[in-house]
Amino acid sequence: MRTTRTTTTFPNGATVPVLGQGTWHMGEASSARADEVSSLRLGLDLGLTLIDTAEMYADGGAERVVGEAIQGRRDEAFVVSKVLPSNASTARTLRACDDSLKRLKTDHIDLYLLHWRGGTPLSETLEAFERLQQAGKIRAWGVSNFDVDDMEEIEQHAPGQVATNQVLYNLSRRGIAFDLLPWCAEKRIPVMAYSPLDEGRLLGNAAVNRVAAAHGATPAQIALAFVLATPDVIAIPKTGRPDRIRENLAALDIRLTVEDRTALDAAFPPPSRKRPLEMI
Ligand code: NAP
To answer: What's the average model confidence in pLDDT over 211-224?
Structure first.
């Protein structure tokens, strides 16, 4: 029986599954494209409807893969994309969004994020986000790689409007549990956890493998179960392999025990003080 929560809700009322699909490195090799499209489509079939992409990935290539995967089934998908800091001025953000829409072959993006903070004043990017929202080209907007001080600043500019903060979070990158996660929880802002498998590095870890063996599970499932056990966190693992979509989905059925958590905490100690936000 599935005992863990399976959805969360953004401030605009949109409800999404807490397990989504990442797309970084998709669209880089034409030989992998068919499997990438199949993976995303299988994910949609199985309810992994949130797909995360960005204009940066494969220079727009990942958005093209997503566009192909959602063709004919746009309404099933919740598409997240991101504008680069180098495009964060008002005029360039408006243009970048139009370009993303073309590659995605859609008329709207469900959630549009500033990929990370650059030198452009936030007010300029927010002006573009507001205009895009009014035009119906994006349904909501958010940020990525913002630490607490950045989040406080954005809340001053646009109180109650930021839909999410997408940040690095996994067993070996737990820093945000000290301050950013509680801050977002208090404001009821769901967090999107990127690289939940630490780009695959966690899969060889001995402690993760021991917990996996005890559950008859795979290391990837344990790494995902850890992230998914955090309230209002959405994990977005990337896989271009359809068999791994089913494997990752099954992480939703795993409940870590107190003993598991103790073993994982020993291997990956939780933060006891503020750590600067890590990025990949
Ligand atoms: P990740 O999801 O932690 O790991 C992806 C790697 O793990 C890939 O090499 C994948 O290979 C492999 N993998 C996936 N499922 C597996 C399984 N069940 N067993 C074994 N290996 C498995 O890393 P990520 O791609 O960096 O992060 C996820 C997504 O977050 C990205 O794709 C992107 O959408 C987003 N992201 C955002 C930012 C940001 O700055 N906002 C930064 C990084 C990532 P295969 O494809 O071969 O399965």
So the answer is: 98
Q: 213-231 in b/e burial notation, b at 16+ Cβ within 10 A?
A: eebebbbbbbbbbbbbebe
* pLDDT at residue 3, rounded to an integer: 42
Q: Is 248 in the pocket of ligand 1 (CB under 6 A)?
A: yes
Check residue 5 and give its pLDDT.
62
Cβ–ligand 1 contact at 250 (below 6 Å):
no
Q: Using the atom order of ligand 1, give the atom closest to the CA of residue 241.
A: 48
Question: Is 57 marked active-site?
Answer: yes
CB 180, CB 191: distance < 8 Å: yes
Q: Is the CB of 247 under 6 A from ligand 1?
A: yes
Are the beta carbons of 112 and 132 closer than 8 angstroms? Answer: yes
> So where are the chain's domains?
15-200+233-241
Rounded CA gap, 54 and 114, in Å?
10
**240 φ, ψ (degrees, to nearest 5):** -100, 15
Supply the residue whose CA is at minimum distance from atom 37 of ligand 1: 194
> What CATH class does 15-200+233-241 carry?
alpha beta
Give the pLDDT score at 208. 98
